[in-house]
């Protein structure tokens, strides 16, 4: 007989004798807000832990047993998803709860079942409230073609930033938007645009299959959840080159490293071809990090913005990627061909306006010397 799991079953024993259900654990996200409490980790052999303002905070309770892990995690899954996990496969899926959407990853380690549960607000923030280092988002949502890459580590807020831009396009323009996600995170309502959200593994086998099919589906705007391999990168670049506005993500730490990572997907024999394709198709690279606020009230975005203008495209084509950072340091004026900012300059500005602590900024800077130089200068970045 199949075991039935319910998120309302109070099965996790806390230190004060009270038992919590999975519903109780997810409700904590709603009470505190997804901007402060971003993740819940459940692992056999230790107590569950929330990620609060970027730090892991453990629950006071008993170590999770195999039965508890199944009872908590399986309560969020369908029968088919449970079968996938039981067959030894990793699982990515989503789960709606109240005002939040949760992205769930379940895998196995040497102790057994592990779950990483991330909270995403169902309400999509407006671009002007994201924390862009300048008003470049206005130029992006008006574009009709080109590749916009969002870079950053897991949990840096890339999905939220992209969702805010897609939602703005959805409100302002009558166009066809198609997303390929693994899993679907933010849910868009049909407004001025017509939106189709496709989930890898459910609606389409792979990102590659979805991208090939998409070229016959008349999209204007495309969102590819992640560029994971050379074929996905190649298809994404082709889509950007052939008159589509394309959003995608990479797990890289800065703008220059993002370009290098794309080239590294390909063998030396294809590097010249890809450099040329990237120089023609790339519009922007936006790299972001979430930094704890000085007042302790959550985190704030620090951004690095690369605008692929003629000079940047020329350096990419010639293979002189290492020279791009110096252009980002100087092309900062508020005009369409510039609007660039280094992460260090944005961090310096956030320190000077009292948003973040100096020590935090130093910790998150990619280049400490550049940050010190930015602190000495005016670091004048428009934070509106």
Structure description:
This protein has helices at residues 22-32, 66-73, 79-86, 136-142, 158-172, 207-214, 230-241, 255-264, 271-281, 310-318, 324-330, 343-352, 358-364, 368-376; strands spanning 12-13, 19-20, 37-43, 49-52, 55-58, 91-97, 100-109, 112-121, 146-151, 176-181, 194-199, 221-224, 245-250, 282-292, 299-307. The longest helix is centred in the middle third of the chain and has 15 residues, at 158-172. The protein is built from 14 helices and 15 strands. The strands form three sheets. Strands 11-10-12-13-9-14-15 form a seven-stranded mixed beta sheet, sandwiched between helices. A six-stranded antiparallel beta sheet has the order 5-4-3-8-7-6, covered by helices on one side. Strands 1-2 form a two-stranded antiparallel ribbon. It is globular. It has 384 residues and is of the alpha/beta class. Helix 4 (136-142) crosses helix 5 and helix 12 crosses helix 14 (368-376). The model has no long low-confidence stretch (mean pLDDT 92).
Which SSEs are present, and which pair or pack?
Elements lengths: L11 E2 L5 E2 L1 H11 L4 E7 L5 E4 L2 E4 L7 H8 L5 H8 L4 E7 L2 E10 L2 E10 L14 H7 L3 E6 L6 H15 L3 E6 L12 E6 L7 H8 L6 E4 L5 H12 L3 E6 L4 H10 L6 H11 E11 L6 E9 L2 H9 L5 H7 L12 H10 L5 H7 L3 H9 L8
Parallel strand pairs: 9-13, 9-14, 10-11, 10-12, 12-13
Antiparallel strand pairs: 1-2, 3-4, 3-8, 4-5, 6-7, 7-8, 14-15
Helix pairs in contact: 4-5, 6-7, 7-9, 9-10, 12-13, 12-14
């Amino acid at each position: 007989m199949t075991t039935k799991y319910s998120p309302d079953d109070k099965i996790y024993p806390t230190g004060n004798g009270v038992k919590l259900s999975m519903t109780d654990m997810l409700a904590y996200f709603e009470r505190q807000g997804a901007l402060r409490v971003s993740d819940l980790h459940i692992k056999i052999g230790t107590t569950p832990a929330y990620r609060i303002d970027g730090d892991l905070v453990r629950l006071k309770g008993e170590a999770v047993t195999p039965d508890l892990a199944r009872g908590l995690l399986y309560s969020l899954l369908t029968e088919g998803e449970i079968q996938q996990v039981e067959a030894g496969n990793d699982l990515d899926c989503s789960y709606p709860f109240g005002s939040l959407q949760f992205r769930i990853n379940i895998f196995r380690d040497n102790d057994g079942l592990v779950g990483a549960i991330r909270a995403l607000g169902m309400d999509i923030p407006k671009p002007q409230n994201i924390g862009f280092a300048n008003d470049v988002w206005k130029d992006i949502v008006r574009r009709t073609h080109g590749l916009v890459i969002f870079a950053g580590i897991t949990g840096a807020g890339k999905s939220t930033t992209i969702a805010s831009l897609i939602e703005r396009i959805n409100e302002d323009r009558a166009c066809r938007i198609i997303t390929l996600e693994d899993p679907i995170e933010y849910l868009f309502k049909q407004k001025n645009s017509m939106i189709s959200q496709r989930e890898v593994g459910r609606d389409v086998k792979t990102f590659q299959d979805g991208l090939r099919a998409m070229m016959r589906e008349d999209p204007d705007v495309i969102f590819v959840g992640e560029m994971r391999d050379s074929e996905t990168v190649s298809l994404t670049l082709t889509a950007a080159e052939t008159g589509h506005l394309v959003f995608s993500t990479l797990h890289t730490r800065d703008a220059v490293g993002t370009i290098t990572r794309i080239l590294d997907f390909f063998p030396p024999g294809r590097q010249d071809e890809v450099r040329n394709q990237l120089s023609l198709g790339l519009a922007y690279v936006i790299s972001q990090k979430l930094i704890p606020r000085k007042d302790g009230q959550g985190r704030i975005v620090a951004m690095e913005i690369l605008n692929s203008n003629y000079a940047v495209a020329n350096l990419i084509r010639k293979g002189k990627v290492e020279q791009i950072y110096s252009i980002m340091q100087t092309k900062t004026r508020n005009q369409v061909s510039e609007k660039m900012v280094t992460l260090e300059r944005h961090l310096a500005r956030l320190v000077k306006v009292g948003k973040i602590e100096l020590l935090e900024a130093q910790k998150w800077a990619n280049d400490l010397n550049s940050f010190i130089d930015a602190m000495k200068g005016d670091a004048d970045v428009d934070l509106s």
